[in-house]
Write a structure and sequence with these properties.
Blueprint lengths: L38 E3 L11 E5 L4 E6 L32 E6 L11 E7 L7 E7 L15 E7 L21 E13 L8 E11 L4 E9 L12 E4 L13 E5 L9 E6 H7 L15 E11 L2 E14 L1
Parallel strand pairs: 2-4, 10-12
Antiparallel strand pairs: 1-15, 2-3, 4-7, 5-6, 6-15, 7-14, 8-13, 8-15, 9-10, 9-14, 11-12
């Protein structure tokens, strides 16, 4: 299942065509009763805890690795999806998709577990929060003409399969951003090795929240680690925006990159984001309609993104919740 993300990679991270903290709490109008708030997980495998994932190359549009050893531990009839026969897992209920996945961008598979190169690892026993390692080493990477390779390279952890990764509401359909307050949290550790080899000093870790609107796909990308200050923020603190238009000037989904809760190298830290508050805070960059009623949640991703730099990230205990 190919998940379509941002069309421009000028400032935002690029991981998923296959597509960054704490902000002031601002309430949005919710659609529902005035009963006491209730918080629910909207992913089947918070943590994650289960080895039920795939590995995909966004650039080439292909899947090149599957692990379904623990998929049976995520038993839910709603996870059935006939479109995922490629994953190779079928339960008594039917064909099911991965509960999460790794996504790479602009890496040739021949560089997997090489230096320079990239890696994605799953550490720890199944059933307890797994530790996901995103390794992205391009500092000494050369082109075919033996020049420094300054292309964008990414390694990503992603929740994105609707119904199999992201839950469906009790009544069916898809969760909307407008259904309640959406929060994301996880433990993260980052470490950069060496300096920068390219003009854009990019060695960043971001959390990306992606949702569909009538206008197009919106992406809010929150930067947690940015030792090279890859971009200067504007007066509102926005590092990059597509101003809701394509490079050709046509109306499009809105995409923004902002600084958020900062990580210190080598120090494991609990990241917490309130994407509802962030959307309201940067509403004018989101078409002045940051949380429309129809706003299907498409993906939540943690992205390791570099140009001519080496960066390692470790992710664990991820949670994606909605309170309404």
């Amino acid at each position: 299942m190919k998940m379509h993300r941002r069309k421009s990679r000028t400032g935002l991270t690029a991981a998923a065509a296959v597509v960054v903290a704490a902000a002031a709490a601002v309430l949005v109008p919710y659609y529902g009763s005035a009963s006491a708030p209730r918080t629910v997980s909207i992913v089947y495998d918070p943590g994650p805890k289960q080895r039920c994932y795939s590995v995909s190359d966004e650039t080439g549009g292909k899947n090149y690795g599957n692990e379904s050893a623990d998929c049976a531990n995520i038993a839910d009839a709603n996870r059935v999806n006939a479109a995922c026969t490629w994953f190779g897992y079928t339960s008594a209920r039917g064909v099911e998709c991965p509960a999460w996945r790794f996504v790479t961008y602009n890496w040739d598979e021949s560089r997997l577990r090489q230096y320079p190169g990239y890696d994605h690892q799953v550490q720890g026993p199944s059933g307890s929060p797994l530790r996901l390692v995103l390794q992205n080493d391009a500092r000494t990477l050369r082109t075919a003409r033996n020049a420094q390779d300054c292309g964008l390279k990414e390694v990503t952890f992603s929740y994105e399969y609707i119904g199999s990764s992201l839950k469906r509401p009790a009544g069916g359909g898809e969760y909307q951003f407008s259904d309640g307050r959406v929060k994301v949290a996880y433990d993260a550790l980052v470490k950069q090795t060496g300096g920068f080899s390219c003009a854009e000093k990019r060695a960043i870790l971001t959390t990306d929240f992606i949702y569909k609107t009538a206008r197009g796909t919106n992406v809010i990308s929150v930067v947690h680690f940015d030792p090279g200050s890859f971009s200067r923020p504007d007066a509102d603190g926005v590092l990059w925006s597509n101003h809701c238009r394509t490079s050709a000037g046509k109306p499009d989904g809105c995409r923004i990159t902002v600084h958020g809760q900062a990580l210190r190298p080598g120090k494991r830290t609990r990241i917490g984001l309130d994407f509802t508050a962030l959307a309201k805070k940067y509403g004018k960059y989101l078409g002045d309609d940051p949380v429309p009623k129809k706003s299907q949640i498409v993906a939540v991703q943690v992205v390791n993104s570099v140009r001519g730099a080496d960066l390692r990230a470790e992710i664990s205990k991820a949670a994606v919740t909605l309170t309404k």
